[in-house]
Amino acid sequence: MDSTTTTQRLRIDWRGRPIDIEYAWVNDAAASAGAPAPVMVFLHEGLGSIAMWRDFPARLCEAVGLHGLVYSRPGYGRSTMRAPDEHWAPDYLHRQAHEVLPAVLGELGITTPPWLFGHSDGGSIALLHAARLPTAGVVVAAPHIVVETLSIDGIRDTVAAYERGPLRQRLARFHDDPDSPFRGWSDCWLSPAFRDWSIEDEIRAIRCPLLAMQGVDDEYGTLEQIRGIARAVPQTRLFEIPACGHSPHKDQPAEVIGAVCDWLAEVGPGALR
């Protein structure tokens, strides 16, 4: 996140315990320009946090004239960490979509259906939220709707890099306890119980506009992830990005912002300036 962005904390009650959530607003100019601006909520990847988005949320929101909300999920960033003995179940993404995200929106007084931008795990969360709860529209970048062998192999390689040390040191800059997100995420994805995880049927219920993008060189998933979304959700627009890996907003930010601007200009009357 941009160094000038001020992060704040809010408290939600989640599954019977208080959880502190680190969050930040971006593009306040949109919120103060008369009528309340629609809000775009940014949902980070499996190892992400507010800080790891860098300046992308602000750049995108300024380009499209939306007020932006960025937050670190429980277990990430400066939010309440995962307890060492807490193991995430295969439905952990569903819990984030159906419990945590609505609680954050409610605590912040956001009553208008939000626009969602989700990356990787955050993309899956965005899809699950839109399939069940009111949503203005969804942008997903490198989302997962099924578990692929490529994904598992990529995560195993990431675990090896983490255990060698340098990756853990890098993640420690962005999380109060890097083991909290890393072990929560990797242990779940590599568990036998997760191998059959799929949200292909659930996302058929999505009725809002949807833009699904993925790099053609994504090391964690094939293009069948977003092509599967398009088969399940007919109003999906696909954007397959050349020379791009698993993080389109980092590898090709200008192309991503341009694609979102073009898409919103068609599907989001009133969302743009």
Descriptive overview:
With 273 residues, this protein is an alpha/beta fold. It has one domain (8-267): Alpha/Beta hydrolase fold, catalytic domain (Rossmann fold), CATH 3.40.50. 37% of the residues lie in helices and 18% in strands. It contains ten helices and eight strands. The chain has helices spanning 28-31, 56-64, 92-107, 121-132, 149-164, 166-171, 179-189, 224-232, 248-251, 253-267; strands spanning 8-14, 17-26, 39-43, 67-71, 115-119, 137-141, 210-215, 236-241. An eight-stranded mixed sheet has the order 1-2-4-3-5-6-7-8, with helices on both faces. α3 (92-107) crosses α4 (121-132). Pfam families: Abhydrolase_6 (PF12697). It comes from Roseateles chitinivorans. This is Alpha/beta hydrolase.
Element order: H for helix, E for strand: EEHEHEHEHEHHHEHEHH
Number of helices: 10
The termini sit apart by: 24 Å
Name of the CATH architecture: 3-Layer(aba) Sandwich
Strands of the biggest beta sheet: in what spatial order? 1-2-4-3-5-6-7-8
Number of domains: 1
The main β sheet shows up as:
8 strands, mixed
Residue-averaged pLDDT: 94
**Low-pLDDT segments, ≥5 res:** none
Radius of gyration: 17 Å
Number of E-type strands: 8
Helix content: 25-40%
Shape: globular
What's the CATH superfamily, by name?
Answer: Alpha/Beta hydrolase fold, catalytic domain
> Pairing-aware structural class of the strands and helices?
alpha/beta
CATH T-level topology: Rossmann fold
Which CATH class? Alpha Beta
**Percent in strands:** 15-25%
